[in-house]
Amino acid sequence: MATDNPSQPSRETSHRPVPSSQDGFPAGLWRWLARRNPPGPFQARAWRSPLRGPWLTSVFGLVLLIVLPVVIVSGLLSYAAYAPRFGQGNPVDVGWLRLPYFDWPTRPSWLYRLTQGLHVGLGLMLIPIVLAKLWSVVPKLFAWPPARSAAQLLERLSLVLLVGGILFEIATGVLNIQYDYLFGFSFYTAHFYGAWVFIGAFVTHVAFKLPHLIRALRSRSLRSELRTRLADTRPERPDPYGLVAPDPAPPTMSRRGALALVGGGAVLVGILTAGQTLGGVTRRFALLLPRGRDLGDGPNDFQINRTATAANINPASTAADWSLRLLGGPRPVTLTRTQLAAMTQHTATLPIACVEGWSSTQTWGGVRLRDLAQLAGVPHPASAKVMSLEKSGSFNQATLQSNQILHPDSLLALQVNQADLSLDHGYPARVIVPALPGVHNTKWVRSIEFRAT
Ligand SMILES: Nc1nc2c(c(=O)[nH]1)N[C@H]1C(S)=C(S)[C@@H](COP(=O)(O)O)O[C@H]1N2
Ligand SMILES: [Mo]
After folding, report:
1. Whose CA is nearest to atom 16 of ligand 1?
2. Is pTM, for the whole model, over 0.90?
3. C-alpha angle 150-151-152 in degrees, rounded to nearest 5
4. How far apart are the first and last CA of the chain?
């Protein structure tokens, strides 16, 4: 019954049953709709939780307001870390969404491990908070009439983009870290454009809601809420937004209980996730990530992104007659593995940090890339294109920036943890560069072309 709904506009004196042109369109239509509340969730009285209200919504909102920008910025940084200037952005051409190019740093070596670990880790931890926030405003989804003015209609459409955007980003992100390449479309393209839709809606939403959020947060004290037991839990004051239940049921949980439940959920997700990048014993708790598990002991027993078999590497092509080709100088240089091993060797402890959020730090041994550039006759390379023996796929080549070639820890690794690389980790030789996104640490290297400009 429409009269039960406190979010109704003030009752009109007119009783026209259908919209009339005298009313003007669409005002008349809205008034007509307002008298015809559909049943079920469209009845404000159907929503009875005594905890719903602007304060609780704003607490969840504040957490999202603080943490989401970190997730957004670290996500955009991941795009930048792929070096889009070399056509390695994913998606490649993003038109006017292109951000200014800059050289991704090589120091600290754990930079991408940090930014991408935050992106994936915080993104996952926010899921319970996003769900709680949606729960807290769900009656508004069923507000009736659907809109009372053109401005309100626009606001509700922007909420579709906001809610749809974040759910889409969560869904694509989670699927990608669980089973890559599950989509019929490119994960990167979808996640990238979805992100911009969400960013636009998020900025708009914050601009409109910030004053309400501040006011609502001031309406109750967090400290006293945290001291309030179930027995003393009362609904919030009736609000102009239609969040507080007009006919609240008795509470079954205190506000602090609800906050603990949601916060505990986020912490639990964090515990089940963080091990994939923290490593050590914590890796055992990274249950949410199939690629985060401990793979046993031994120098080569760490995370493998794609095995040699999966990459269609013919073991014969990595055998004794394998040689590395250095291109781009006055004449090509060819080096056998024995010749590479006879050059000055360096070791560096560096992480492989995957876009999926996991990382794995190992001690690598091999030849400096800058020594190879020197040998090729390009001592001051502007870039280097690394090609793999792997024939197809988008992971079989990568272009490195000048600072990534010249860093003293940037290696063409022959060894890891003092043993020869295993075939799965890129034998006979692979690239390892500080702070480089995992995907560009090319395995089964066939050639490197150093470019002076
Ligand atoms: N040729 C080739 N190199 C590759 C890959 C690949 O599939 N093919 N995977 C990349 C990705 S996505 C990551 S995260 C790292 C993983 O290295 P690892 O398998 O030795 O841990 O290798 C990178 N190098
Ligand atoms: Mo990766």
Report:
1. 305
2. yes
3. 90
4. 74
For the chain, what are the domain ranges?
21-280, 298-451
Greatest CA separation for the chain: 95
Q: Residue 40: left if φ>0, alpha if ψ -120 to 50, beta else—which one?
A: left
Q: Is 304 in the pocket of ligand 1 (CB under 6 A)?
A: yes
- From atom 12 of ligand 1, which residue's Cα is the shortest distance away? 439
Rounded to an integer, what distance in angstroms lies between the CA atom of residue 448 and that of residue 398?
A: 10
pLDDT tens, the chain, 453 aa long? 333 344 444 333 334 444 444 445 567 777 888 888 899 999 989 999 999 999 999 999 999 999 999 999 999 999 999 999 999 999 999 999 999 999 999 999 999 999 999 999 999 999 999 999 999 999 998 988 888 888 888 888 899 999 999 999 999 999 888 765 556 678 899 999 999 999 999 999 999 999 999 999 999 999 999 999 999 999 999 999 889 999 999 999 999 999 999 999 999 999 999 988 888 788 878 876 655 455 656 888 888 888 899 999 999 999 999 999 999 999 999 999 999 999 999 999 999 999 999 999 999 999 999 999 999 999 999 999 999 999 988 899 999 999 999 999 999 999 999 999 999 999 999 999 999 999 999 999 999 999 998
Token pair 């890339």 in the structure block, residue: 369
Answer left, alpha or beta for residue 95, where phi above 0 means left and psi between -120 and 50 means alpha. Answer: left
Pick the CATH number of 298-451 from 3.40.640.10, 3.40.50.10840, 3.90.420.10, 3.40.50.1240: 3.90.420.10
Nearest to 29 by CA among 14, 18, 16: 18
| C-alpha of residue 109 to centroid of ligand 2, in Å | 16
And the tokens for 403?
């600072």
201: how many CB neighbours lie within 10 A of its CB?
20
Ligand 1 within 6 A of CB of 390: yes
DSSP, collapsed to helix, strand or coil, labels residue 104 as coil
Contacts of 327 (CB under 8 A, 6+ apart): 376, 447, 448, 449, 450
Question: How close is the Cα of 274 to the center of ligand 1, in Å?
Answer: 21
Q: How far is the CA of 395 from the centre of ligand 2 (A)?
A: 9
